[in-house]
Design a protein that fits this description.
The chain is built from seven helices and no strands. By secondary structure, the protein is mainly alpha-helical.
């Protein structure tokens, strides 16, 4: 997670943290949890909005701020699709891991690899 996302999350949680520091533990905890939920939603929204900036920067040879604007333009109208693709791309490397980590699990039952 980049520093910018952490800053957004901390800013959203700051009122609750300040209430806890002032001595109002219950209200501060509730506000901190609410801030964490709202901050997480903002972080996910920003992540999807800016997720196409690196390809725009490299492939289209744009400057940094132009790539950020281009990413926002590309995501506009397709936010949910881009979110689904990003989640799929993040989870894809973990799918074959159980079969690749243990060769004996990938072989059929009764084969020499599974007989110990």
């Amino acid at each position: 997670m980049s520093v910018g996302y952490v800053v957004v999350l901390l800013i959203a949680m700051l009122p609750g943290i300040l209430l806890i520091a002032a001595g109002s533990d219950d209200a501060g905890a509730a506000l901190t949890v609410l801030g964490a939920i709202v901050g997480s939603a903002c972080v996910i929204w920003l992540w999807v909005l800016l997720s196409l900036a690196p390809p725009a920067l490299v492939l289209e040879r744009q400057k940094v701020f132009a790539a950020l604007k281009r990413s926002a333009k590309l995501v506009r109208g397709a936010w949910w699709r881009v979110l689904g693709i990003q989640i799929l791309a993040l989870s894809w490397p973990s799918w074959p891991r159980p079969w690749l980590s243990s060769p004996s699990r990938a072989s059929p039952p009764g084969s020499p690899a599974t007989v110990c």
